[in-house]
Amino acid sequence: MAHTQEPSGPSLSSLLRVAPGERPSLAWRDPGGLPAGPRDKAAGTAATAALADRLASLQERLYAQATAGDRRRLLLVLQGMDTSGKGGTVKHVSGMFDPSGCRVKAFKAPTPEELAHPFLWRVARALPLPGEIGLFDRSHYEDVLIARVRGLVPRKVVARRYDRINRFEQALVDDGVTVVKVFLHISWEEQRARLLRRLDDPTKRWKFDPRDLDERALWPAYQEAYERALHRCSTEAAPWFVVPADRKWYRDWAVSTLLAEHLEAIGPRYPAADFDVDECRARLISR
Amino acid sequence: MAHTQEPSGPSLSSLLRVAPGERPSLAWRDPGGLPAGPRDKAAGTAATAALADRLASLQERLYAQATAGDRRRLLLVLQGMDTSGKGGTVKHVSGMFDPSGCRVKAFKAPTPEELAHPFLWRVARALPLPGEIGLFDRSHYEDVLIARVRGLVPRKVVARRYDRINRFEQALVDDGVTVVKVFLHISWEEQRARLLRRLDDPTKRWKFDPRDLDERALWPAYQEAYERALHRCSTEAAPWFVVPADRKWYRDWAVSTLLAEHLEAIGPRYPAADFDVDECRARLISR
Predict the structure, then answer these.
(1) In what ranges is there compositional bias, type Polar residues (chains A, B) (predicted)?
(2) Domain-by-domain residue ranges, chain B?
(3) What class does CATH assign to B12-278?
(4) Fewer CB within 10 Å of terminal CB in chain B, N or C?
(5) SS3 for A263?
(6) What proportions of chain A, in percent to the nearest 5, are helix, strand and coil?
(7) Partners of residue B102 in chain A, C-beta under 8 Å
(8) Which residues in chain B have their CB less than 8 angstroms from residue A67's CB?
(9) Could you report the predicted ipTM of this complex, rounded to two decimals?
(10) pLDDT in tens, A135-156
């Protein structure tokens, strides 16, 4: 796969992956790092643009083969602190794909109806269908992140959820879903800079919520909750990837590359016609 | 509004609108025509590109003002014969917007569950929320188009649906929805050319369904059903627009322009902060 500037090197997926069983240290992974690929913004933007056609073609083939009964599909799960770029990543990624083959879902605070169901209920309802690419801005991981940090449910309940998540994701994989889980890793300083930009620009102020500052005050607890979730739920079937996200151009390149590698691994193909092409052509031309 | 190349001319909306009460003749409206705006592909592509930033900004403001309680939103309904470019238009339009503020829905043949409900049920479930832009690829109009042409329900039942649709759309408008209904008008010859292209290109063949030829054989009945729907359901509250769609570049320019005109009429604005900006800034900088 020629997915980086060093075609013979290891895949980006293998570099960014949290190995099953690993206890990842987020403090040790640099949110501003460039672990592989382009070294500056100009090269990064160009490399990402160069991926767009390939990704569009892979998506079209994935969608096309589903029309012939193939069940495979892809789910991109995006998690990260406020301002880490989940929405921006969804925008970038979905801009490369045909929207009719994308299923985008942003998970907000659960509604009373959602709270009345098991925590995976609302997630199951938003999954991509065969041939589609699902894009989750937040996910069932909120139920072991904010739920843990804020004590929204007892610790014991949270503790049971990791295994339930792993079984849920294993079932998805068994059903033909390629699950790509990405933690957008930003630094404490970069979050401050981004929040200040929202405050200082009147056209961005509506994105700011003073409660974001309360969440920010719990930064260390969130980092610990993320480390725990990544440790418990990075599995062979559905591993986690940590993407350095302080630089938006690098984040977009890295997520695009992860998607390209996973779609290449599926290797989708246009299906053969299951009808008589010549007969249809004759019918069309006849009048 | 400077939405065409002749800023002082009438709006495109007024030119393409089916006047309430009018019995439109589709044979009389040229699918290859250029009723206003750019005269060739190069100019059209440039004019459409020039609209993209304005549309993105309008959408962001629409979304932003909804966070402060404004209920307004927009619904684009796309109808047209097979290959008329409904999917292509959704792709073009949604490519200009932030996907988190778009709600895209392609209506297929109704499921058994959908058939067990009133015909507007599945439509009501797919409507945009305040601040969102809804994009419908097909809609409740299928229930007076294919339903009529194919005799899926008795004529008498179809006849009652026009008024139900008008009342439904009036209620949407009363609730703050700007409804923009677009008929993508292509010619019999252009449909043949597009179907042939699908047949002749192995990477497009999966989009072809031999049953499309059966639908094509009913072309006159469909044109008549469209004329009837446009006549009965082009209202002051929610008029229909006929967009010449034989040229994709013109179609994209026309739909973009219709959207821009309708969004300008809403005139969305960034809301003022409902919190103490200085206090938040001080809190952010303090540590």
Answers:
(1) 1-14
(2) 12-278
(3) alpha beta
(4) C
(5) helix
(6) 50, 10, 35
(7) 99
(8) 206
(9) 0.90
(10) 999 999 999 999 999 999 999 9
